[in-house]
């Protein structure tokens, strides 16, 4: 199980980043006190996204987290209505996919279903 992914986000885009992750099913959880106000954590079904608030943030051009999104079409529409960039991608394994750009410029793959287990 992948426990978490850490993503650098400019501090002034923190709330917008939390909005993005909420739309795709993550909820904010308390981060450890010793980390102070430099991080925000979100979680869904035991997997966490850690937002590291960084002035000089970086985002990979092609590297990305991929998440299975319940209500895939609804989530894509909500992201678009929220002003987020979402581009449909070709289907793999018979399931819809898309790429969205989260605050901080991070690509996030949105999958309607995971690949079959026998791959």
Write structural notes for this entry.
The protein is of the alpha/beta class. The protein is 17% helix and 39% strand. It is built from two helices and eight strands; from the N terminus they run E-H-E-E-E-E-H-E-E-E. The chain has helices spanning 14-23, 72-81; strands at residues 4-9, 27-29, 39-44, 47-53, 66-68, 86-92, 95-102, 106-111. The strands form two sheets. A four-stranded mixed sheet has the order 1-4-3-2, covered by helices on one side. A hairpin with a 2-residue loop joins strand 6 (86-92) and strand 7 (95-102). It is globular. The protein starts with a strand and ends in an 8-residue tail after the last strand. 20% of the residues are buried.
In a few lines, what is going on in this structure?
By secondary structure, the chain is an alpha/beta fold. Helix content is 17%, strand content 39%.
Keywords, separated by commas or semicolons:
alpha/beta; 4-stranded mixed β-sheet; 39% strand; globular
- Report low-confidence residues grouped into runs of 5 or more: none
Continuous helix count:
2
Mean pLDDT across the residues is: 90
Shape: globular
Major β-sheet annotation: 4 strands, mixed
Strand residue content:
35-45%
Q: Total number of β-strand segments?
A: 8
Residue share in helix = 10-25%
Instruction: Give the ordered list of helices and strands.
Output: EHEEEEHEEE
- Structural class comes to alpha/beta
In spatial order, strands of the major sheet run: 1-4-3-2
The radius of gyration computed from the alpha-carbon positions, rounded to a whole number of angstroms, is: 14 Å
For the termini, the CA-CA separation is 17 Å
């Amino acid at each position: 199980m992948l426990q978490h992914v850490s993503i650098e986000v400019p501090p002034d885009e923190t709330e917008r980043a939390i909005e993005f992750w909420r739309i795709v099913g993550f909820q904010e959880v308390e981060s450890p006190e010793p980390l102070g106000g430099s991080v925000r954590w979100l979680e869904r079904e035991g997997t966490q996204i850690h937002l590291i608030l960084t002035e000089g943030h970086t985002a990979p051009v092609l590297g990305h987290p991929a998440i299975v999104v319940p209500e895939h079409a609804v989530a894509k529409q909500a992201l678009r209505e929220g002003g987020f960039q979402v581009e449909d991608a070709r289907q793999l394994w018979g399931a819809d996919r898309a790429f969205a750009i989260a605050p901080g410029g991070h690509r996030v793959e949105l999958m309607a279903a995971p690949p079959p287990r026998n791959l």
